[in-house]
């Protein structure tokens, strides 16, 4: 007997219907025009004035009856009698008859009788007479009354989100205050594991991101967020938070505490003090979603995982908020992209977080973990239930996570501080996925990255004459072994690799490692592979087996995922030595014991070699400025920028 | 001798160089995370923690060694010993060995030894023993430490504009405060004709829109606006405003008072108290632009016309602001569109304001006035100096005026309150250009509108048998006369047309008009054409000429541009009668004396007949709800929705 029955998941369309039937009523308030940006208009705006309110001159010059100028020319100017001058903002009135003219400034009202303005450049004035050297047509250099906005018309519709242009239009019809909608949405994060940003991160705790992403998401819809912070996952705490929120909000969004686990109480409380309308939507990741009403106030419980919460918010809640605000269609930010890689779905309807780089869409999923990450996703795509397979090249619509600035290049592979320098100098925006070198080769093979930074060493290639036996070669042998084609390897720069030890450590080289506690890097990292080769060389020299040597080093099998973890372990004294770059040692005040100089290169798919962003990347790599700005231990050399084609 | 020499205009590229050499230094300040949205990051953000900080369960269930489950199945579950329970947020530690299992909640840390989580659905617990019915793979339902963000890496680069996702990332690494840039930009509108919104609009005055559009434009760039309001166009006022702004701002933007007219003093003051770097850029509308420095603070004077000011701001100032803030590329919002109509340029480099409707680009220019309007433009395109002609269908890049919500349909023609009903019910956004019926036919012919609302009457067509002599037909004859093809006429609804008079007026019909002061509608309006036909009928009946009749009506030749102007003239007693719709009379408390029932139809280009927005428009037109919501005097009839193809 299984402990728990599967819940009946609500179909997607049914969930939408349930949400759309929820009643929320925004309040109306007046906003000063300068604070109205991004808010939603509460009423139709009908203008009581024309814009411009009168026909006005668009140039400095002279107001005339156009017909008086028809016969004039550069050599035979017409002579007209000057009646006076109308400065901008003046209410001086003249009546211009045949043979008469009035000096006029840009923006001033055209006097009665006149129907055009001669630019000052084509005139000459003397003793009350003006000579005109060029004819004007009727209406020339005149902006007619009401030609921008005609009075009596509806200039903006209720529900319009106020942007730059709308604010300008409201100003130009004289509105100082505008009626906007106020829809207070309460945001509660629940979970015993959550700590608010700025708090102390005890073991087992994570920072609460949902409060902040939902806060901005709600604001972007034109509603008003109220943050209630983090609430513990217990009945008392949640009940109390809900009670406050119910009294202050038109809608409540919670995240976390909605799954079927033992510690999760949100849906039980809604059931007790209100009414549950749905629990679980049949779309991945909608299973934990709960929809209910407490004392007339709708409440929607979102998943705890940040990217899942944002997806469900965008898919179900944001359209509802916009509808409640009467906001017009088109606010949801979507962009069409092309799948950069094959996608397999489980044949269940799904929202899949994706990255969007130069119109290419790739799953924002490091492959290993079951849960995808907020930092890598620009938005998500919807995969229909019947789809199990989507080919690379398929056009898909991406719903963006708010107002996203999209990256220019997607770079996988091993971490290197040189990448930050490349990013800064090129002005490009990188999306970097530090997958280790092995992961970089795979990402290029799968088409999920544009560039991979790799430092994978190999020894004694068997079928190549050009390398000496025993010589370590970088990256090229891996490309050959994997049979990669349609790629190029661009030689990068050299990096000093060594042991990282405390300043007073006696460790002076690899031969001192036996008996010392080591923190190694993770499998798949080029650094680990290089250490292994160097140890193999050393063991050979010593006449012992590699295994014998490594077995004598406690922690040799460990695998830190980042250099920072390595440094921390050394600094804390938990281990006696780590492995990493000189730069890393120096930044952390550690001693660096060099054991090799390796080559860090860039593997690039041929397909993208000519896109402007990649060209810019390569240009920066070969620049003198880049060479001069590389941190200690990294150095360009004669092969930097060399391109090897496969 | 001409009064004024042409100034030497600065070439565009030289102007960019001058602006880019200006020195502005943003300040650094800390912002609470919840207020950081839209601001620019002042420093690189390097994370000191992994996200998640530990490997965590992504499902409720049991943490196991995956290999312990490999052999189990639905029918032959494996039995494992339950060690305990790890709730989310707990720091309880267990060590899981072969044959052991620990209950775990979503989000809780994976205990030592375990490498996967079995979902609770595939388990059953009894007396300290757990049965597992389905194998899991290593890593399944586990999110590894650092798999979202790896510690030590730069997660966000200095200069990043903070959006939803960035705020979420900062929260998830625990930042409560973030270092952002503060760049105060002062905004001054100058001109004697300007009144701040909310003020009284005396004759000759217009409302100041530039303060507000520039305010939002500056904010959108991530800088901070300071509004100094409207300043009179005199030395003392402008000097004083500049003095204050120089002491408070890093950059000053003014608008107006920069042309060469007699009343314009801005550039003279800059020359006196500071240094003028450029006056006039050789790009339309950049002629009035002035660039200078006062006491080390750069000042840029923009044109007074709102859409010109916005274009120059977007083209020259916004890129400079973003660069000063170190903001990364790609913030400028552009969109590619297809020219919907032929464009002729004057062969001078130009920024042309355009509308953007469903990817189609058309000039936002009503043709008549020399100056284009803010309310119709979504952005602008750049026309190179050598271009004199651009074909319809050419792809162009539109720089958007800030964050624009683009219209769904572009509708030209005669005004009708029924259009507001259609817009509300369809949920579509219309861009309406009330050009009169004639203008509507032209806009469709030129391809610059999708739909035109038209009510143009004609009588006695000569070559058509189906109409009776003397019968008035609507719109179809005009289509035939203009030789329009590739269009359809969709029959709309009937409108009661009549004279609008004061409640106590003795005027009871057209025959009472002689000797009464009339306000007529403008030429090109269907209403005027209909009145003319009806008067012709009446004159014929009376045995006099039409001219004789109309000459007897003072003001017959007048031409109000809108119904509202007509109503105002009647209400004020300036005239005795006007002409318009019943609806308009009723809304303004006037008496309505009906003289005809006309047909208001929709002329649509065939090309767009099948786009979803047009289909939705037509569906709404034929709906019962539309019929029921039409205001008094407008009525659907049996032909509503009928489509006549040409």
TrEMBL record, chains A, B:
Pathway: Cofactor biosynthesis; molybdopterin biosynthesis
PROSITE patterns in UniProt: MOCF_BIOSYNTHESIS_2 (PS01079)
Keywords, comma-separated and alphabetical: Molybdenum cofactor biosynthesis
CDD domains: MoeA
The MoaB/Mog domain, residue ranges: 186-323
GO biological process, one term: Mo-molybdopterin cofactor biosynthetic process
SUPFAM superfamilies on file: MoeA C-terminal domain-like, MoeA N-terminal region -like, Molybdenum cofactor biosynthesis proteins, Periplasmic binding protein-like II
Gene Ontology CC: cytoplasm
Protein name: Molybdopterin biosynthesis protein
């Amino acid at each position: 007997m299984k402990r728990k029955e599967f819940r009946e998941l609500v179909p997607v369309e049914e969930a939408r219907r349930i949400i759309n039937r929820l009643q929320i009523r925004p309040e109306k308030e007046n906003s000063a025009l300068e604070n109205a940006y991004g808010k939603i208009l509460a009423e139709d705006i009908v203008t009581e004035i024309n814009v411009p309110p009168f026909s006005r001159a668009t140039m400095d010059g002279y107001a005339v009856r156009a017909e008086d100028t028809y016969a004039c020319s550069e050599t035979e100017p017409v002579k007209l009698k000057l009646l006076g001058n109308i400065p901008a903002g003046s209410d001086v009135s003249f009546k211009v008859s045949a043979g008469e003219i009035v000096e006029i400034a840009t923006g001033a009202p055209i006097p009665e009788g006149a129907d055009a303005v001669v630019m000052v450049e084509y005139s000459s004035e003397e003793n009350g007479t003006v000579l005109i050297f060029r004819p004007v047509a009727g209406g020339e250099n005149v902006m007619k009354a009401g030609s921008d906005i005609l009075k009596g018309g509806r200039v903006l519709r209720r529900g319009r989100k106020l942007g730059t242009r709308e604010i300008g239009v409201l100003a130009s019809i004289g509105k100082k205050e505008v009626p906007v909608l106020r829809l207070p949405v309460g945001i509660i994060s629940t979970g015993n594991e959550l700590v608010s940003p700025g708090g102390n991160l005890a073991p087992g705790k994570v920072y609460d991101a949902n409060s902040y992403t939902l806060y901005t998401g709600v604001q972007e819809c034109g509603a008003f967020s109220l943050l209630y912070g983090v609430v513990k996952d217990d009945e008392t705490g949640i009940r109390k938070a809900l009670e406050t929120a119910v009294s202050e909000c038109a809608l409540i969004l919670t995240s976390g505490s909605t799954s079927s686990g033992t510690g999760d109480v949100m849906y039980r409380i809604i059931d007790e003090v209100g009414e549950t309308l749905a629990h679980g939507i049949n779309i991945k990741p909608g299973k934990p979603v709960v929809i209910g009403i407490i004392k007339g106030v709708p409440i929607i419980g979102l998943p705890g995982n940040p990217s899942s919460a944002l997806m469900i918010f965008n898919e179900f809640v944001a359209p509802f908020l916009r509808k409640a605000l009467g906001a017009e269609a088109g606010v949801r930010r979507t962009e069409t992209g092309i799948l950069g890689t094959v996608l397999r779905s489980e044949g269940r309807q799904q929202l899949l977080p994706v990255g969007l780089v130069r119109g290419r869409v790739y799953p924002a999923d490091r492959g290993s973990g079951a849960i995808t990450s907020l930092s890598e996703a620009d938005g998500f795509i919807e995969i229909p239930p019947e789809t199990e397979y989507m080919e690379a090249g398929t056009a898909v619509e991406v719903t963006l996570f708010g107002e996203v600035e999209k990256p220019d290049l997607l770079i996988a592979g091993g971490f290197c501080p040189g990448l930050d320098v490349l990013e800064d100098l090129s002005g490009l925006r990188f999306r970097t996925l530090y997958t280790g070198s092995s992961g970089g080769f795979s990402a290029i093979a799968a088409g999920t990255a544009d560039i991979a930074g790799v430092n994978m060493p190999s020894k004694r290639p068997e079928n190549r004459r050009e390398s000496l036996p025993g010589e370590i070669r970088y990256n090229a042998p891996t490309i050959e072994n994997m049979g990669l084609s349609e790629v190029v390897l661009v030689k990068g720069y050299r990096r000093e690799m060594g042991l990282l030890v405390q300043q007073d450590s006696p460790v002076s080289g690899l031969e001192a490692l036996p008996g010392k506690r080591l923190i190694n890097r993770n499998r798949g990292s080029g650094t680990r592979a290089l250490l292994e080769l160097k140890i193999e060389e050393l063991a050979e020299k010593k006449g012992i087996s590699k295994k014998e040597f490594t077995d004598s080093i406690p922690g040799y099998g460990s695998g830190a995922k980042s250099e920072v973890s390595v440094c921390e372990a050394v600094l804390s004294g938990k281990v006696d030595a780590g492995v990493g770059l000189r730069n890393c040692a120096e930044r952390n005040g550690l001693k660096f014991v060099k054991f090799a100089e390796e080559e860090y290169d860039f593997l690039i798919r041929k397909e993208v070699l000519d896109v402007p962003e990649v060209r810019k990347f390569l240009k920066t790599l070969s620049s003198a400025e880049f060479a001069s700005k590389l941190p200690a231990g990294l150095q360009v050399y004669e092969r930097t920028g060399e391109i090897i084609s496969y």
